[in-house]
Amino acid sequence: MKVIIENPEVQTRSGKSANGRDWTMTTQHARLVGELLAGPLELTLAANQPPYQVGEYELNLEKSIALSQFGQIQIMRQLDLKLVKANPVNFAKSA
Q1: Helix, strand or coil, per DSSP, at residue 9
Q2: What is the per-residue pLDDT for 55?
Q3: CATH topology of domain 2-13+23-90
Q4: Is the dihedral of CA 49, 50, 52, 58 positive or negative?
Q5: How far is CA 82 from CA 16, 20, 52, 54, 63, in A?
Q6: Cβ atoms < 10 Å from Cβ of 29
Q7: In a 3-state reduction of DSSP, which class is residue 55?
Q8: N or C: which end of the chain has fewer CB within 10 A?
């Protein structure tokens, strides 16, 4: 399954949780491109993780999902993406 990054910009949100702890979440917009599933995708970046560069990535599904304690599939907070093709050109016209 492909993930296309068209823009290296990130969005950062922060605040305080109900128990008073500070939190910060950094996300980056992408596009998911698969045979049966395609559409916009919001990637959550780990703390201090640099943004993904513009390009085409392959989603490693086995490293991006886990089994819960109840045996259900869960999507990991940070997806495992491998750069396939870096490209500074906007993919919107070619994909």
Answers
A1: coil
A2: 95
A3: OB fold (Dihydrolipoamide Acetyltransferase, E2P) (2.40.50)
A4: negative
A5: 33, 36, 10, 12, 11
A6: 14
A7: strand
A8: C
